[in-house]
């Protein structure tokens, strides 16, 4: 190789080196500080920049994006002398590359140490319970202090987050016991409140049940009273009809017997014989210790003395020798109305129209209220006695019976009696 070729190669290598040191490219979201003879001249942003070879120098590029730095757990003492481990995260961004390059040597380490010292100052003024429940307040205080301290460094602290606060194991056990006791207390309180509500609801249900039962018993008593009233009214009507029919039958029987006796015209001898037949019946019975002979007994014996025909001269013959006379034919009895009730039927009674008590019944409503609509006491309406008398008066006329002791019509062949 000739000398000329070697020189050309050296010149080409120098050109390449000079070109590399002259043309520099800065990526997006990055910034570079340019120095000339070791002095700051400008801050180069993203793009192509030209440097004077061997005169200008570009410092390491600075990332302008928001950066996240997680610090290891740091022991912090609270105001109640308890040591807790606090794990924090800091979000920051470089706003001024020149200040970040010349105002602080290592801004990441500076932010870490500043965060630790600020965290100890903030948490040292709080007790354990406040530390565990005041994370938002701690984050706000840390951000304010860090942002104020890192402003001259060209750094903006976006936010600070507390990832974890870990108290000592003994404190954790005590907290768990406290939390368990608190939950047990709330469970007991809720159980007691539930039992109280249940007792109240049960008492209200029993009260409502007793009220409804009392109302039902009241309605049942009212309906039972109404039914008893209707039953008594109908029973009284039935007894009245039965007594009337019985009296009617007895009257018919007496009338028929009386008419038959007078139609047969019995003589005194027959009556004496019937009287003597009745006397032994008076003495019957184990309880009869004494027998009283009536005053008419002697007359009956006189009648018996004539049984053998020993009648005195001029006296009437013995009743055994008496012959009956033809009695007048008794008129035929009309029995078509004997078994007819002269009162309205039970189904036609006013009380039988509403045998089933109903709340819509005016008398039922009056019984419920206790006072009738017109202001008078609510008394069941019973057919007056005048109606029964009118019913009896409307019956067909019975055959007139002759008076017991009155004169009898004389028939053919009848003998006068004394």
Q: Helix proportion of residues, in percent?
A: 40-55%
Q: What is the CA-atom radius of gyration, in angstroms?
A: 70 Å
Average residue pLDDT? 75
State the end-to-end distance: 210 Å
The CATH topology of the domain at 67-167 turns out to be: Tetrahydropterin Synthase, Chain A
- Described by the principal axes of the CA atoms, the overall outline is rod-shaped
| Percentage of β-strand residues | 5-15%
CATH architecture classification of the domain at 67-167: 2-Layer Sandwich
* The CATH superfamily title of the domain at 67-167: Band 7 domain
| Number of β-strand runs | 10
Low-confidence stretches: 307-311, 371-418
The CATH top-level class label of the domain at 67-167: Alpha Beta
Structural class call reads alpha+beta
- SS field, number of helical segments: 10
Summarize the biggest pleated sheet: 4 strands, antiparallel
Secondary-structure element string: HEEEEEEEEEHHHHEHHHHH
Map the helices and strands.
Elements: H1 3-22, E1 23-26, E2 30-36, E3 39-44, E4 47-50, E5 56-58, E6 62-63, E7 67-70, E8 74-77, E9 83-94, H2 97-102, H3 107-124, H4 128-133, H5 135-150, E10 155-166, H6 169-264, H7 268-283, H8 297-305, H9 362-369, H10 385-393
Antiparallel strand pairs: 1-4, 2-3, 2-5, 2-6, 7-9, 8-9, 9-10
Structure description:
This protein is an alpha+beta fold and 418 residues long. Among the domains are: 3-63, no CATH class; 67-167, Tetrahydropterin Synthase, Chain A, CATH 3.30.479.30. Helix content is 49%, strand content 14%. The chain contains ten helices and ten strands. It has helices spanning 3-22, 97-102, 107-124, 128-133, 135-150, 169-264, 268-283, 297-305, 362-369, 385-393, and strands at 23-26, 30-36, 39-44, 47-50, 56-58, 62-63, 67-70, 74-77, 83-94, 155-166. Strands 2, 3, 5 and 6 form a four-stranded antiparallel beta sheet that branches. Strands 7, 8, 9 and 10 form a four-stranded antiparallel beta sheet that branches. Helix 7 packs across helix 8. The radius of gyration is 70 Å and the shape is rod-shaped. The protein starts with a helix and ends in a 25-residue tail after the last helix. Mean pLDDT is 75; it is low at 307-311 and 371-418.
């Amino acid at each position: 190789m000739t000398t000329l070729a070697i020189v050309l190669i050296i010149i080409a290598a120098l050109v390449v080196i000079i070109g590399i040191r002259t043309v520099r490219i800065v990526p997006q979201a990055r910034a570079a500080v340019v120095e000339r003879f070791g002095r700051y001249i400008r801050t180069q942003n993203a793009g192509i920049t030209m440097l004077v070879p061997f005169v200008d120098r570009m410092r390491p590029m600075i990332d302008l994006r928001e950066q996240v730095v997680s610090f290891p757990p740091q022991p912090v003492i609270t105001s109640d002398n308890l040591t807790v481990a606090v794990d924090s995260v800091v979000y920051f961004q470089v706003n001024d590359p020149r200040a970040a390059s010349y105002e602080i040597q290592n801004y990441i380490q500076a932010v870490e140490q500043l965060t630790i010292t600020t965290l100890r100052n903030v948490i040292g003024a709080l007790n354990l319970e406040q530390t565990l429940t005041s994370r938002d307040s701690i984050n706000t205080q840390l951000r304010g202090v860090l942002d104020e301290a890192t402003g001259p460094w060209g750094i903006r602290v976006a936010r600070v987050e507390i990832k974890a606060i870990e108290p000592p194991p003994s404190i954790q056990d005590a907290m768990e016991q406290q939390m368990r006791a608190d939950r047990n207390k709330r469970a007991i309180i809720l159980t007691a409140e539930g039992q109280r509500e249940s007792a109240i609801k049960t008492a209200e249900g029993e009260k409502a049940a007793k009220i409804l039962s009392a109302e039902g018993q009241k309605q049942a008593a009212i309906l039972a009273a109404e039914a008893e009233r209707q039953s008594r009214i109908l029973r009284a009507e039935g007894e009245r009809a039965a007594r009337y029919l019985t009296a009617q039958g007895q009257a018919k029987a007496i009338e028929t017997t009386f008419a038959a006796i007078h139609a047969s015209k019995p003589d005194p001898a027959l009556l004496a014989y019937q009287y003597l037949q009745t006397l032994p019946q008076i003495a019957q019975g184990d309880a009869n210790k004494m027998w009283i002979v009536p005053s008419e007994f002697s007359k009956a014996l006189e009648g018996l003395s004539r049984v053998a025909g020993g009648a005195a001269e001029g006296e009437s013959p013995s009743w055994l020798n008496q012959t009956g006379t033809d009695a007048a034919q008794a008129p035929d009895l009309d029995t078509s109305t004997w078994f007819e009730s002269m009162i309205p039927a039970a189904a036609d009674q006013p009380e039988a129209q509403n045998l089933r008590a109903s709340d819509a019944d005016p008398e039922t409503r009056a019984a419920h209220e206790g006072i009738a609509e017109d202001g008078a006491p609510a008394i069941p309406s019973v057919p007056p006695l005048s109606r029964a008398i009118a019913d009896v008066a409307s019956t067909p006329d019975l055959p007139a019976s002759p008076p017991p002791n009155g004169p009898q019509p004389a028939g053919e062949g009848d003998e006068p009696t004394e």
